[in-house]
Design a protein that fits this description.
alpha/beta, SDR family oxidoreductase, SDR_fam, NAD(P)-bd_dom_sf
Length: 296
């Protein structure tokens, strides 16, 4: 992996899951990482009661402080900043702080996502049987979060004529995620957002890409299968999974690539990037790109 000791990064939604994995791997490459989200040790984010109950958890896992400490322990510098990424004033204050403290922003990873707040355990159902309560967390606290952070961070990058915006998404060559229209719509919008931003940022030397992992063994996924990272191999249903750090290594490789601008506007699968940059997951496997079932 490349050396990111001079990289100033912001990872949104970095308390747990994908964001945590990305932040820690950026730290392992030496980056200074602003770890943002709503969950602090003193006050976990609200609205996760349903998924906690379904997962058999009594407390929301993770905090921005814990992730920041992991970043520092990995070799970088983690800085925890509480930020509600739906609040424009909060987001603007975050980037003002980064600029004041560091003088620049090299990497923004858009990862804050509200979808878990309405997870009801139903993976497949026709759209007409799903309630409109999914719209707000998927679109307004998902897609909008990414756009809001990007539009506030972009001017700092444009002025320096350099920078990288990474948008985490899900994409499998335009296959439809059957029975999950709201999720499919949100992730497709994120993918298009990364593409559209790339077109407008291209003349200014700033790159924008979408990065799509496979099925990750997040804290919620492990809890839902009644296991942990040390014992997941005992669960055949998790055979196709990858750790969030695999996605993190993909983002770190892109951030360290001096030719990353050649990829601007693209949707990049983690499994493909693993082959391209010759990295593996934490267990030594080079997990291939995740694919939906052929009928999906």
């Amino acid at each position: 992996m490349g050396n990111l000791k001079d990289c100033i990064a912001v990872v949104t939604g970095a308390t747990r899951g994908a964001g945590r994995g990305i932040a820690v791997e950026l730290g392992a490459a030496g980056a200074t990482v602003y770890v943002t989200g709503r969950s602090t040790r003193a006050q976990p984010a609200p609205a996760y009661g349903q998924i906690l109950s379904l997962s058999g958890m009594d407390r929301l896992p993770g905090s921005i402080e814990a992730t920041a400490e992991e970043v520092t322990a990995a070799g970088g510098r983690g800085i925890a900043v509480r930020c509600d990424h739906t609040d424009e004033a909060d987001v603007a204050a975050l980037f003002r702080r980064v600029e004041q403290e560091q003088g620049r922003i090299d990497l923004l990873v858009n990862n804050a996502w509200g979808g878990h707040e309405v997870f009801d355990g139903v993976f497949q159902a026709p759209f007409w049987e799903r309630g409109m309560e999914q719209w707000d967390p998927f679109i307004n606290r998902g897609v909008r979060n990414h756009l809001l952070a990007s539009r506030i961070a972009a001017p700092w990058m444009v002025r320096r004529r350099r920078g990288l915006i990474v948008t985490t998404t899900f994409w499998d060559r335009d296959r439809y995620m059957e029975g999950n229209l709201f999720y499919d719509l949100a992730k497709s919008a994120m993918t298009r957002l990364a593409f559209g931003m790339a077109q407008e940022l291209r003349p200014h030397g700033v790159a924008s890409v979408a990065v799509t992992p496979g099925w990750m063994r997040t804290e919620f996924v492990l809890a839902g299968h009644h296991t942990d990272e040390a014992h997941w191999r005992e669960k055949p249903a998790l055979a196709r999974t990858e750790s969030p750090r695999y996605l993190g290594r993909a983002v770190a490789a892109l951030a360290a690539d001096p030719q990353v601008f050649a990829r601007t506007g693209q949707v990049l699968r983690v499994g493909d990037l693993a082959r391209s940059y010759a990295f593996t997951d934490i267990d030594g496997r080079q997990v291939p790109p995740f694919e939906l079932d052929a009928h999906a």
